[in-house]
Amino acid sequence: MSDGKIAAKAARQEDRLRGAAEGFEALFLNQILQSGRAASFGDSLTESSATQTAQSLLDSTLTEVGAGRAGLGLSEAIYRQFSGHLGGSQE
């Protein structure tokens, strides 16, 4: 395999790993938001299924956009943990 192909493969693997790490962080943040909403105190007058759906969509959007940028560092920690294994992996 030429050096260019090896470098391209390594770059693809790094991109895939970074995407997976950010996806996991988004999933984690979404679970935190959902748990916080589930722990609300009592029923309010504005608590309808439409409101719950809108809040769920908002939570999903916020976590997808915020993953990797939120300053939690979870995606970066996951990336660093697994990036050492990229060289020997098979596609």
Describe the protein's architecture and organization.
This protein is mostly helical and 91 residues long. The protein has one domain (3-83). Helices cover 70% and strands 0% of the residues. Helix 1 runs antiparallel to helix 3.
Which SSEs are present, and which pair or pack?
Elements: H1 3-38, H2 49-66, H3 74-83
- Share of helix among residues? over 70%
> Can you write the helix and strand succession as a string?
HHH
Mean pLDDT, nearest integer?
81
Structural class call reads mainly alpha
Radius of gyration: 19 Å
Strand content: under 5%
Tell me the major beta sheet: none
Q: Given the C-alpha coordinates, what overall shape results?
A: elongated
How many domain modules?
A: 1
Distance between the termini: 14 Å
Number of helices: 3
Number of strands: 0
Poorly predicted runs are none
Summarize the model shown:
This protein has 91 residues and is mainly alpha-helical.
Keywords:
elongated; single chain; mainly alpha; 70% helix; 91 residues; 3 helices
